[in-house]
Fold each of these.
Amino acid sequence: MNISIQVSATLYHKDPTSSEIGLKILSEGIQLMQDLGFEAFTFKKLAQNIQSTEATIYRYFENKHYFLLYLINWYWGIISYRLLLATANVTDARQQLTNSIEVLTGLPDASHPGYMEEEMQLKQIVIQESGKALHTKMVDDENQNGIYLNYKSIVSSVAELVKTIDPSFPYPEMLISNLIENANHQRFFSVHLPRLTNTSPEQDAVVAFSHLIIQKVLQS
Amino acid sequence: MNISIQVSATLYHKDPTSSEIGLKILSEGIQLMQDLGFEAFTFKKLAQNIQSTEATIYRYFENKHYFLLYLINWYWGIISYRLLLATANVTDARQQLTNSIEVLTGLPDASHPGYMEEEMQLKQIVIQESGKALHTKMVDDENQNGIYLNYKSIVSSVAELVKTIDPSFPYPEMLISNLIENANHQRFFSVHLPRLTNTSPEQDAVVAFSHLIIQKVLQS
DNA sequence: CATTTGTGATAGTAATACTATTATTTTTGT
DNA sequence: ACAAAAATAATAGTATTACTATCACAAATG
């Protein structure tokens, strides 16, 4: 039984989950994006990997930029779902926030509720490439097309928890978007520029840092 | 009287500050990078803008990726210098940290000491494009070549202040690199995705947020 | 004044990011 | 089971990009 994750339909021409070859584009595409990185990734190479042609892939995705946006959107869709599970049946707002921070800043783990196969790889792609997806001259158009709704609604709903806990705190959205972005940054630093951080792949400190900030900054 | 800002020599073939045309490459290049964004920026277009040829620009810079790295490095060189000025003759570590946070997360202003013409434009480029410079398959090589030394030494020296003020705080580097990155992110959000933040171009809250975090998190 | 060095002009190449065409296969509705 | 519609594979082609190479000329340098 599969849970379907919402990905904005403006991101594709033809739904890749609706066909065999579409699913192959996704699974091989994730792999190739990770292996090559966004700049070296091409539809031609992907087509060779799935024994198909460029033209076929272009029928699903407008270009590789949209393909990346699709993957990132998918990731945030998974996180949305996991947030839902992590806060359901929890009445205390503090506890809801704690659980949410765990989901947003922690590492994927097959044991947690709502885990999906692709989450690990997608997270790697988000860490490595999401800056390139966002920081484009097209952001404003894409935002208008609702492409960042998944992400914005995550920030918005967790910020609501912050407001409930401490209505006097003046920067709820900033706090949450910061913690989310920071988690990804620090994980990147930990691998490539370890002197910029105090976390490491062996001993993860990102979640602890995030909890600490929340705890110190919010009064309740 | 000009203060010379250090930019790592591994970033260029020929020092662009050593000739008329090199300086034109820099000044017009900054402008064009801002106008077009990294992906649409090409050496051909830049060559046309300065009435020269691609070949000439390639004699200064290996490619546009290195050109961007050069600009970012230049920016951090300016910030390094401003940090120096902002902490000189200040004896109290707390005050030094406060001043440093101001420099790192505040907006360029012609009135502050050490201000340079290019700072404003360079900061815009850092906000928009620095993710693309860093999140590359070449980070590790570039790091080995000392390309991030400016940035790393900034984080390191400000983190030292944190350690002086609160030796028990376990994440000094993470705290500082977070505040630096966050400032740029939030400024990007404020323009393009305002619902993710609580700052706006009209009413800047980034510095206040940063001070708040420092104040709440460090014990002294 | 001779030599090195930098520049401009021009040409050329491989790869990328697509678009277009057509024949063939697969799916679908009846 | 069969006709019609849709999806795919194969192939070709185009504009742009990111370079590299060559060479003649000008400027700076020692």
Amino acid sequence: MLAADRPTPEVSLVTQLRAYLAQANLPEDRRLPPERELAGLIGVSRAELRKALDVLEQEGEIWRHVGKGTFVGGRPLDTFADIGALARRSNPTEVMRARLAMEPELARSAAFMATPADIAEMRLCLARSRQAETWRQYEGWDTRLHRTVAEATHNALLLGLFDTLNAVRRAVTWGRLRVQPVKPAPDHHSFAEHERIVQAIEDRDVAGAATAMRTHLQTVERKLLARQDQPSEG
Amino acid sequence: MLAADRPTPEVSLVTQLRAYLAQANLPEDRRLPPERELAGLIGVSRAELRKALDVLEQEGEIWRHVGKGTFVGGRPLDTFADIGALARRSNPTEVMRARLAMEPELARSAAFMATPADIAEMRLCLARSRQAETWRQYEGWDTRLHRTVAEATHNALLLGLFDTLNAVRRAVTWGRLRVQPVKPAPDHHSFAEHERIVQAIEDRDVAGAATAMRTHLQTVERKLLARQDQPSEG
DNA sequence: GCTTAAACCAAGATGAAATTGGTTTAGCAT
DNA sequence: ATGCTAAACCAATTTCATCTTGGTTTAAGC
């Protein structure tokens, strides 16, 4: 381009762009023309335009995404976490790792925050799971025990995260048939491990609660890897 | 079809279908062939097949959806984690506690799984955050650093949980304006703390990474409680 | 050296066509 | 009439090819 086109080089392209953004009436979604087009409109090279857009993006005045375009304003936050999509991208191994990352910390927090009512419910779940006549019943009480621990943190966000994790776990684990006609053996590893978790929480043993939960989940992981016909719950 | 093909009409089509479901090895998603095809396979009319499928659906053994297909097992729960509702029930304190529960474990896992590319991106975020000219810019790089750590776990589920946590954090923190004209001081506590986190991850020091992240978040928590006019990020 | 234009890439949008469960209709045999 | 079958039709959904778009690389040009 000729020098005469830009008689005032001290007026930076960034400023020029800001002026354009203010003047141009953009569509409802505040999307501005594609870079190639915009470069032609303003009369600069695409590379130069992009450098200016980089600045505006750093400033937070615009946001860009490949395939979508460039938009004025802050990046919109998606208000929903899609469990299904998450489950599709994940797998049983990842679920196990995620449980190992989260649940010990939930147990730790529960040991701090649990009320007597929380602990009573945990003990109820323990007892019912021992009385279970089928694996399905056992799984129900097992799931409820783990959720009670999450509830005992008395933190709505942590509980929500646990529920999300749990929903993904169920979605991921769904396919595998578990035709276990027999009921859990009285010496099933989970009974003692669950007991230790609840006891640690009752004793306000924060480190012990986390450790007990981690140990428990590691056992579940080992069984899960060894034999696919075992329930994946724990 | 000839009567000879079905010499035992008392064996209902439903039973026959159940046998088929047990025997056939279905794809990962447990989807069975389209009705038209399945009808041909079994050798019955589509109408008759559908009547049997109706029973199985009633029993809860399968579920169907137009355009999708027919699947064995329970209908997947289409629960979306509602970030907005979660944010409404939560508060900054809970968010902080949730970060303290999750992010050290993410750092620990990242120390295991991070690739050189992950670490390079972390270092980039570090450098940019130091160069930030405004708090807004700093926050952007800080957020990106923390998310890179979550990415470095190479666990889609953990990343999803982190994103959910982060979305709630942003939603909860929404109201508070932070008009901090000055840029972060060169000795801002987070610089050194972030550096320690990344270094531990690079050194494959799993315990150190978790500890560094916990220490960092505790500092953020302290600052947050002491002075509301500080950025809540860290 | 620096800029520019062009090519290339992968993520996302778009739209036509095919697929699929659900429903209706017409034919046909009993 | 009754009951079954095949075919057509419908709307929801997937699939696939194509286009768009920001991001990146490359090489020519000055």
